[in-house]
Amino acid sequence: MKVAGKVAIVTGGGGGIGGALAEALTAAGARVVVADLDASTAQAVADKINAERPETAVAAGADVSDTDQIRGLIALAEGEFGPVEMYFANAGITGAPGLEADEAAWDLSLDVNLRAHIRAAQLLVPGWLERGEGYFVSTASAAGLLTQIGSATYAVTKHAAVGFAEWLNVTYGDRGIRVSCLCPMGVNTKLLYSGEESGEGLGVAATRAVTSAGDVLEPAQVAADVLAAVDEERFLILPHANVLDMYRQKGSDYDRWLRGMRRYQASLLGQG
Q: How far apart (Å, rounded) are the C-alpha atoms in residues 144 and 138?
């Protein structure tokens, strides 16, 4: 799909990958609603964009796990720019390490990392089917193809996000709806370093696992990779090419891969 002239919503757009995506989209000729739980960061991104490309971005504070608030973003986009043609489900959260996460923590991770994607698709896909075109981009993680040392909530919900994106692609891919799934490893965002900031063993190990497994990329590079994949209508977006090798190794000998991950975890925790 060509981005120029399209109307897009980017969630988690107040910084990191989301902010870079909003900037890249408008630079390529799209108009964007920048949404973030923190309205001030969304506004800062929109202001920066509009300073360079006037009237191409609007900001909104929104909890994108809430159906009514997603509906509000769609209405805002339609009122400012026209029908939404692209949705970047980029908002995400990490989680507590270990099995300590309670029901509320699991619900929050499921709501933000998975159900937010489902709820957006439920609102957008019917209209896209009528118009014969639409593009849904899911930000998952390499953890959704491999796993995440430390946080069970993150590992499980990112696997689920990949699964939902796959299902959307299979179900609607021949009806004009395109779907891509972004699965990066380390990207230079606040989210990456949240584990170290926790000071907990598994949390620190989680951050070190990501930063030691490959290069830590800048959000702008990831955004460029996403737009290239959208142009090609390619499903799997892997800014870290070695993730594909790891994924193949996992699939070729699951038990060997699990043993290797246990050894790797032990080394990060100073147990090996």
A: 11
